[in-house]
Amino acid sequence: MNVRRPHISGAALAAVAVLGIGSLSACSTDSAAAGGGRFDVVASFYPMQFLAERIGGDHVHVTALTEPGQEPHELELSLHQRAELEESDAALFLSGLQPSVDEAIEQSGLKTKIDAADLTKLEDHGDVEHDHGHGGGHSGEEHSAEEHSEEHSEEHSEEHSEQDSHHLDPHVWLDPVKYAEIAEGVGTAFAKADPEHAADYRENTDALVDRLRALDTELRDGLKNTKTKVFFTNHASFGYFAERYGLTQEAISGVDPESEPSPARIKELRDEARADGVTTVFYETLVSGKTAKTLARDAGLRTDVLDPLEGITGKSRGDDYFAVMEANLTALKKALGAR
Question: What is the dihedral of CA 162, 94, 117, 332, to 10 degrees?
């Protein structure tokens, strides 16, 4: 049974964590022993776990802080997880996505803290409640997706320099090119932290980057010629993906999947569906699709799953990153009328 614990001060948490470490270390003198002699990595959620496992291979023991089926934005670390974090050799996370993880890692005594946000450029994809007009409705000729992206960038370029990480879109793993940049950084960090196996980490990293580049080519080719470039999502997780492949994401909610859209936003989406030839409203596996299905029913649209890959469950259309991205491509090609 889940019981909400009262607030505990940072000092008390640190004390409990130390006690936890003592019990975890009773039968070993170093953290590697807990992973069977392997480099012990704590990963914040699935996309980080996937990188750690692929790059680390047999040399790395990976513990994920976010359980399968758990919405990562909502994660609150337990005292046991904080103790686990302190006991590990390295932490791999994406700052700005999970505040409790950011705080715990910042307060930890870990020597190796790998922040994916430092390994590629994050961007601000704006507020979904604003700037969604297409000049009276676009058919693809009046406003291409590339023009839409350029206009958006120009409008917000001055704002970006003043905004902190809390305004940046964290869903960078859905762009295989940026995900490959992160993978390269993780490989370098693993090799530095565990030099004995550096050659294997580099080899595994190269193989993963090659696979991500092949996926990028497949996505680019598959989405090049479509009847529409606009797709509707449950929350704003596909900004990098849309930007990479010349598409326009219109999200019912914001970056926070639990936020509720305004009535004006719902009306705007219904009108846009007619103007842009949108056929499908996408929802996802870890968040309720109630609002998406309501919009689809009101607007006479289909529904389908577009998975932001924040976690893998039995409901996922695939058992790893690449399989789910392939399923996403299939769903998008159908919805956008790929030719």
Answer: -100
Give the C-alpha distances (Å, rounded to integers) separating 122 from 118, 167, 230, 242, 258: 9, 10, 22, 14, 22
Q: Residue 281: beta bridge partners?
A: 232, 303
Rg of the Cα trace of the chain? 21
In terms of C-beta density within 10 A (0-12 exposed, 13-18 middle, 19 or more buried), how is residue 135 classed?
exposed
| pLDDT tens for each residue of 164-204 | 445 799 999 999 999 999 999 999 999 999 999 999 999 99
Q: Which helix (H) or strand (E) holds 40?
A: strand 39-43
Handedness of CA 69, 242, 97, 260 (dihedral sign): negative
Whole-structure pTM value:
0.78
62: enclosing H helix or E strand: strand 60-64
pLDDT of residue 263: 80
The DSSP element (H or E) to which 282 belongs, if any, is strand 280-283
